[in-house]
């Protein structure tokens, strides 16, 4: 069965099923047959859209020229209707609240099943374009600029608009073909902004990022990337930063972050590393970050989120060095469980204002009345310190330290133990060592345990065991012999090599 015919419309109005805006065939010729459709200067109007079509769509092939102005809201409605291919409908459904106009001059030549590669050449001028992308509910608004199409690439030039209210300028290109000697398409882009808030763009606290890891791994498996991001100012989790610059490029299947740096909270952050698809699903990565002289409160807030401030609140200047961390996984829990690496931490000249584990240790010691010296209430006065230092190793998601030391005028605090990052549990021994005056030790002290070290044995140490949930661990004072010979040796080595001389009690 075959048929053919042609039709020369004059102001013919159609309202196909699935469309909310009528289509007017104003002039030109529409031919039809059992093989498909043909167009000869067919002028089509819909809302504020005016398009002229020349060419044909026959035998699953498109040979078409399109010129005119498209109202994007109307175009989206058409591309989501039964008149559009299913693959096109699925992609268009990812965009909400589409508005604005586009002046188009496009030429197609290829298979209807692959319209992107069939789009051979043309130009698109965007005017006042706005939309929200569902994959990450981000609002793009007021987008202006040009998109240029060649058989090999789609290129964006002078693209400027607002991303969640912040002005951004973007340029770049996407390859449409595999290219000579290549087996993957590539994307090149550069984004510049005078000021940008990052919170809407990144996963929120407690948000499941498993799908993000999986999608990132699949994307990295298929694409090569060459990207540069420059932000003069911005914010993340309430922290203001300046002079952010990031550069990344795919090299041998790995996306290598050549530099990621910014200034914030009076200090500097710098990092490099790489991320690649994991052998199964998700990602694998290695990072080498460094932190210099950053204010501790801001650093902890950016690292852990605002919700953690009720557990840990420390001021001072943070330095993090000698860092190398690697891991892999399909979700955040898998990544935590796979972490390996090491780092060196220092925090100088600050105050421990809130630290739930230390508060519990002080509470246990105060209740047991080991000394006439009362331990500080961190909620009201805090504990000023000269330094907090630690060397930390991470193996299969368990972070451990043997030299965590808080050095203050009032006391020293040591910690030896480990934290399970995946399960958020702690197993550690904490030693508290008051400096200066050692008051009368009550008769039951040997039951708890102590060490008298330093010159003239004027240095008292009491040990507590900290175990359980990291947010609410169980803390109890323990006999020294229960702490183990290894711990006692480490304790004596830390305390008998003083950072500064102890003050002798003249009383």
Beta fraction of the residues?
Answer: over 45%
The computed structural class is alpha+beta
Which shape, going by the Cα principal axes? Answer: elongated
How many beta-strand segments? 29
Number of helices: 10
In short:
The protein has about 500 residues and is α+β, with helices and mostly antiparallel strands.
Structural account:
The structure is a single chain. Helices cover 16% and strands 55% of the residues. It has 507 residues and is an alpha+beta fold. Among the domains are: 1-177, no CATH class; 339-496. It has a 29-stranded mixed β-sheet that branches. A hairpin with a 2-residue loop joins strand 10 and strand 11 (166-175). The longest helix has 13 residues, at 210-222. The protein is elongated, with a radius of gyration of 33 Å. The model is unreliable at 367-373, 437-458 and 498-507 (pLDDT under 50).
